[in-house]
Amino acid sequence: MSSSSVILVTGGSGLVGQGIKYVIETEPVGSKFGKREGETWIFATSKDGDLKDPKATEAMYEKYKPTHVIHLAALVGGLFKNMKYKLTFLRDNMLINANILESAHNPGGAPRPKIEKVISCLSTCVFPDKVTYPLDENKVHSGPPHESNFGYAHAKRMVDVYNHAYKEEFGLNFTSAIPTNVFGPYDNFDLEDSHVIPGLIHKTYKVKKEIEAGNKDAKLVVAGTGKPLRQFIYSRDLAKLFIWMLREYDDVEPLILSVGEDEEVSIEEVAKAITKAFGIEGQYKFDTSRADGQFRKPATNAKLLSLVGKDFTFTPFDEALQETVDWFLQNYETART
Ligand code: NDP
User: Any idea where the NAD-dependent epimerase/dehydratase domain is (predicted)?
Assistant: First the structure.
């Protein structure tokens, strides 16, 4: 990286963006993941402009004059929203991504610094529905994604296509990261339309209130059998990996950012850890009439570890979950619920 750089993080108010902000602000200055001399970090939100609009996107680049972009902004949502609004997920995310990359390319030659790197954020949803496991970086385009989120998944896949095309036609240094399931402070804790961990955290909060009000038998109800396995990454660990990618990773090919396959956690273990974090350990039961979803969809982090080094440490799941629950309790009034 050059001695003076401006790093623009789109989606800076979200789960992942706030994870990066936390790490940059709390790690020692000049350290591996801390802020370096000459770096200016900008955490943009939708208040800086609607990135679906090319003019607003261009205005944001004009305002901040970035040299590097970590592009996180996206229309994201749970299964129900993805199934109901397929065209919206496809179109909004296609527009956002195309605008971010084209303004980074700056074909009109607007007077601002050349962009040295763009890292865009994909998701393991981009992978084919029918695929051999574990998922790895070579399988992104090897079959159609699951039909439930094909709008979102195709829009994300196209980022990888764009990255290759910008590299081949213009030599630009655009790449992408593929995180597995993320959780942490600033997540969306909505009771209906959220991912599994923030949804269960909010539900457990309500169960605890019921218990405190005298209903000693109140229990967290977990949809399904609790047996499916998932890889979860703490937003503050993911943040470190994005910061490392920004400084060290110069390949167009996407990189899976995840804990290892041997660190899969069952939904029952999630429920156990969350009830423990709230001080009501074991107060959960399963609604087995509800669907489980896929049993496992493991992704390998072998390429990541070969590059970042095997000494990279992920926060133990229980510890990360406790920090998330503590944050939720301290920020209940302002959290996305
Ligand atoms: P959040 O929903 O927490 O945050 C979304 C961010 O995008 C917010 O900062 C929001 O701004 C911004 N944004 C949304 N639409 C627009 C728009 N039209 N114009 C400008 N800004 C916009 O998302 P996450 O942090 O969870 O996700 C970040 C990235 O990580 C996404 O690309 C997502 O696909 C990816 N990802 C997430 C995973 C997860 O488990 N959460 C898993 C894998 C990948 P504002 O707050 O102002 O509305």
Answer: 7-259
Dump pLDDT digits (tens) for 280-313: 999 999 999 988 778 889 999 999 999 998 889 9
Contacts within 8 Å (CB) and 24+ apart, 84-90: 85/151, 86/149, 86/150, 86/151, 87/151, 88/151, 89/149, 89/151, 89/152, 89/155, 90/150, 90/151, 90/152, 90/154, 90/155
Residues 28, 23, 96, 94: is their CA dihedral positive or negative?
positive
- Find the radius of gyration of the CA atoms of the chain: 20
Q: Answer yes or no: is the C-beta of 74 below 6 A from any ligand 1 atom.
A: yes
**Does the Cβ of 88 fall within 6 Å of ligand 1?**
no
Residue 11's nearest CA partner among 287, 239, 205, 277 is 239
Question: Is residue 166 annotated as part of the catalytic site, yes or no?
Answer: no
Is the CB of 11 within 6 Å of ligand 1? Answer: yes
- What pTM was computed for the model? 0.97
Domain ranges of the chain: 5-184+231-263+297-315
**Each residue's pLDDT tens digit, 15-52:** 999 999 999 999 999 999 999 999 999 999 999 999 99
